[in-house]
Amino acid sequence: DTEVTQTPKHLVMGMTNKKSLKCEQHMGHRAMYWYKQKAKKPPELMFVYSYEKLSINESVPSRFSPECPNSSLLNLHLHALQPEDSALYLCASSQDGGGNWGYTFGSGTRLTVV
Amino acid sequence: AQRVTQPEKLLSVFKGAPVELKCNYSYSGSPELFWYVQYSRQRLQLLLRHISRESIKGFTADLNKGETSFHLKKPFAQEEDSAMYYCALGPLSGGYNKLIFGAGTRLAVHP
């Protein structure tokens, strides 16, 4: 298995809802990442997990809460989002925290906040 | 400051023409540089990494530290090369890599 799988592919949520995005990889990668991509913009880093520990939080608002239950899974819990949080949320993984071999990206979850 | 600049939003060429997508970076350390490609309705994929000096789908990229550039080149463009191309800089941050993307260049190859 050489893929990063993200679910759901699409999500519409209200500003008072709580939802979660899921990401899974079975390549034995020990670093996993959440990126946010707005339309016609490059991906922007949100969080980095390395060996299941949060190592980078790019000053992301607390309404986004990451979780890494084990080395294969990465979740992003969403609560009280704003319409401007609507974007494509990408998960990625790399062999280790060094990332020298590049990242493998999932196809993303397209989130719409209404 | 760590920054990646891709000066062209759109590069439009005809099939068979040479292609060069420009990328310049700003980083005080030893850079790790990558090219990623995103075809229409597909996920972001790693195309090249400078440490491997490989050629993928006919594309090559050479790191020029003097000019702080990592331009992507292909001698003869194909229609299937049409996609969004992102140059990315991977400096170490706290011991862990953190990819910084350029704004991207859309390559359109016309028949």
Question: Gist?
Answer:
The complex is a heterodimer of chains A (114) and B (111). Chain A has 114 residues and is mostly beta strands. Chain A has no helices and eleven strands.
Runs of chain B with pLDDT <50, length 5+? none
Structural class of chain B: mainly beta
> SSE order of chain B in H/E notation?
EEEEEEEEEEEEE
Distance between the amino and carboxyl termini of chain A: 35 Å
Q: In angstroms, what separates the terminal alpha carbons of chain B?
A: 41 Å
Q: How many β-strands of chain A, per DSSP? A: 11
Rounded Rg of chain B: 14 Å
Q: What is the count of DSSP helices of chain A, taking H or I runs of 4+ residues?
A: 0
The major β-sheet of chain A equals: 7 strands, mixed
Low-confidence stretches of chain A: none
| Radius of gyration of chain A, whole Å | 13 Å
Strand content of chain A: over 45%
How many strands appear in the DSSP assignment of chain B?
Answer: 13
Q: Describe the oligomeric state of these chains in a short phrase.
A: heterodimer
Helix content of chain A: under 10%
- How many helices of chain B? 0
> Mean pLDDT of chain B, rounded to whole units?
90
Give the averaged pLDDT of chain A, no decimals. Answer: 91
Q: What is the general shape of chain A?
A: globular
Main structural class of chain A: mainly beta
